[in-house]
Amino acid sequence: MFYMAVQTMVHGTRAGWLSSFAFHIASYIHILLAAFGLTILLKTAPILLVVLKLAGAAYLIWMGVRMLLKRGHVLVSSRPHDAKSPSNAFSDSLTVEILNPKSALFYFAFLPQFTSPDAPAGVWVQILVLGAIANVMFSMTDVVCILAAHFVAAKATATNIAGDVGRKIGGCVLIGMGAKIAIESR
Question: How many CB atoms lie within 10 A of CB 50?
Answer without folding.
Answer: 13
